[in-house]
Design goal:
Distance between the termini: 34 Å
Structural class: mainly alpha
Strand content: under 5%
């Protein structure tokens, strides 16, 4: 009876549901992570004779950030520390699950998980677009006036209650999987072009500048490894898409151009669509890089209070708020703005030791992907490393689960490169 319950199909289903629920409210995702954990423990207990329980070097490095979080508990505020300790559990859960289940993580499992990622990305994107059109029809059925807010950034993604940058990361990895398939296989080329165009459109509409940077870099990454094997038709198709698609979007969707280009580089004094950042009350909101520089300056100041170990959980935010007030950034203090940069966050909260732990994790994963020639793993790491420049991705459940899950999947599933998705 027990043997019948040990079924790799059940394991695969749970893995796929975890992927599907990543963009949803953290409660849903947490429930299925717990179910996956419980079933994995049951699976491992039954199969214990076939498993070597001594953890590998890879596992130790992947869980190192969580070990450091536990150390920070000795000099952090308890409420903040306990919340972060629980939120960060996937950092230790996924490496251990994937490592001990490695004998059963076949190529088919990774393909199924990546297929699920693609279907989820397409499904959520269609839902967002349909809902945006529904809101527009409610607003002006004849489209004589288009409310562009419905189609981009926070208004576009609020129905899922997901930050545009995090959704952009999810979509970018899906884009990388499809592009890798398109570049590696002659099958279903037209379908893949349509999917790439659609996901590219949604990434632009998400309004996340860092997601757009990630998109450009993963395209360059895949082309670097695959270009020499492409026929002329595919080369021409890619060139046309890369040039024409952004031009069309930026020309016909003014809110995207204003956010992606004008605000970033401060090209205008007044912005027609600059709603975000101050609750829509002031169309002169400065959405460029200057506020980020001030935030990062405060993060450095906070880190400098304790170069080696940082200020810990809770106390760090108090110090940041004090710094914001000293720089006349009252709104940042009121909203408890974090550092908007994972590297500065680790330094402010954990000092040089915390920053070192993060860099070790990223660098080791990067080297591993390059040695194994895992292009999709490398694409994931490009997304994470770049997104960490403007987001505290390991301070949110979405970012923690997204990184820990897929990084562990690529580490401990088959190391053969597969392109047929």
């Amino acid at each position: 009876m027990i043997e019948k319950l040990i079924n790799s199909n059940i394991l695969n289903v749970l893995l796929c549901i975890v992927v599907i629920t990543i963009p949803l409210k953290s409660t849903f995702n947490s429930i299925f992570i717990i179910l996956l954990l419980l079933y994995s423990i049951f699976f491992i207990c039954v199969k214990h004779k076939e498993i070597v329980f001594k953890p590998s070097k890879e596992v130790l490095i992947l869980i190192l950030p969580y070990i450091f979080i536990l150390i920070q508990g000795f000099y952090s505020e308890w409420n903040s520390f306990s919340k972060n300790m629980i939120r960060s559990l996937p950092i230790i859960i996924f490496p251990l699950i994937f490592f001990y289940l490695k004998p059963w993580l076949k190529i088919a499992t990774r393909k199924l998980v990546l297929k699920t990622l693609i279907f989820s990305a397409i499904g959520y994107s269609l839902f967002l677009l349909i809902f945006a059109f529904y809101r527009q029809i409610q607003y002006k059925p004849d489209f004589s006036i288009i409310n562009w807010y419905f189609f981009t950034y926070y208004d576009f993604t609020e129905v899922l209650d997901v930050h545009p940058s995090y959704l952009g990361m999810f979509l970018c990895l899906s884009f990388a999987v499809i592009l890798n398939t398109f570049l590696s296989s002659k099958k279903k080329a037209f379908k893949n072009i349509l999917l790439l165009s659609f996901l590219g459109l949604i990434i632009f509409l998400s309004g996340s500048r860092i997601a757009l940077v990630c998109l450009i870099l993963i395209i360059l990454n895949l082309l670097f490894f695959k270009m020499k094997n492409l026929n002329n038709n595919k080369k021409i198709t890619l060139v046309l898409l890369i040039i024409a698609f952004p031009v069309l979007i930026l020309n016909f969707v003014p809110i995207v151009k204003e956010r992606m280009i004008d605000m970033t580089f401060g090209l205008k004094n007044t912005y027609q669509y600059a709603k975000y950042g101050d609750k829509g009350k002031d169309n002169n909101y400065n959405g460029g890089l200057t506020p980020r520089f001030l935030i990062w300056s405060c993060a450095i100041d906070v880190g400098n209070r304790n170069y080696f170990l940082g200020s810990g959980f809770g106390t760090t935010q108090k110090y940041l708020n004090s710094c914001y007030l000293s720089k006349n950034l009252e709104s940042f203090a009121e909203q408890n703005y974090q550092t908007h940069n994972q590297y500065f966050s680790n330094y402010a909260r954990g000092g040089f030791l915390g920053l070192f732990v993060l860099l070790i994790l990223y660098f080791y994963s990067l080297v591993f992907s390059l040695k194994r020639k895992q292009i999709l793993h490398l694409s994931l790491l490009i997304i994470i490393i770049v997104a960490s420049l403007t987001e505290n991705i390991l301070n949110r459940q979405f970012g923690i689960v997204f990184f820990a899950f897929f990084n562990s999947l690529f580490f401990f599933s088959s190391n053969k490169i597969t392109h047929e998705i």
